[in-house]
Each structure stands twice: as structure tokens, then as C-alpha cells.
Amino acid sequence: MSTETTLILFKPDAVSQGLVGTVLARYEKAGFKIRGMKLMELSDELLAEHYSHIADKPFFPSVRGFMQETPVVALALQGENVITRVRDLLGPTDSKEAAAGTIRGDFGDKGEDAKMRNICHASDSPEAAADELKRFFNEGEII
Q1: pLDDT tens-digit map of 84-142
Q2: Is 121 one of the catalytic residues?
Q3: Quick count: other Cβ atoms within 10 Å of Cβ 56?
Q4: How would CATH label the architecture of 3-136?
Q5: What is the pTM of this model?
Q6: Domain boundaries in the chain?
């Protein structure tokens, strides 16, 4: 096992439903440590960079609009194999496919927006985590 740090973004659906504390408690119960946390509004530029893999798709404006509905909470979370373990806790990206007991299964949207309104974004690899942590946290903000 290796100690890793990953990025979690509490999306606007988590923020607007008051689920940040509930979901954060699940991460802490799993033994992960908070290394950085902040509330932030996402600019068009930051979203275009973060979602560069879909920024040219016709549905990107709706993703951008959703991610700007409320501020989001950016979280730097550390633990043994945290990247894989957090993604297991979250469940599949499509909340409709997520099992009960997973974060997305318990709290994610079950309608048309189940792939977007799915409570949290989580880095999917060590490389992505390194890039994303730099994108959302300035030097000195991760302890």
C-alpha cells in the first residue's frame, strides 16, 4: 500500500443539499486525513482546463453551468491507496448504477443528470491527482 493524496470536489448538488459534512464524515470514517479544504467559485477558465477532455463537446456548457450553480468545496484527502478507495466509496460515475451504501448510490441524482449531479468528483489516477491538486490548491494550502 502507498500513501497518496487526491482531490475531491464537492459538486453543487452536494453543497446545495447540505451533504458536505455527511460525505466528509464517510471519508474520515474510512481513515482518510484532510490535508487541505476550501470553498471556491469556479471560473470559466478553470472549468475549461479541468474539463479539457470534454470542453469541445456540445454538452460542456451545461456542465459548466452546473459547476457554477454554487461554490464547490475542494478537498485534498490523504491515505493509503486513497485514490482507489475513495472511488470505491463513491461508486460509479452514473449515480443510477451506484449501489446503495455508496455515496453516489445514497445521494446522487437518479434522473437524466445522474452522470453529472453525482455529489463529488474524485481524481482517477495518481497523475490526475497531482495535476488536479495543483489546479485547485495554491502552494502552501495543502498541509
Answers
A1: 999 999 999 999 999 999 999 999 999 999 999 999 999 999 999 999 999 999 999 99
A2: yes
A3: 9
A4: 2-Layer Sandwich (3.30)
A5: 0.96
A6: 3-136
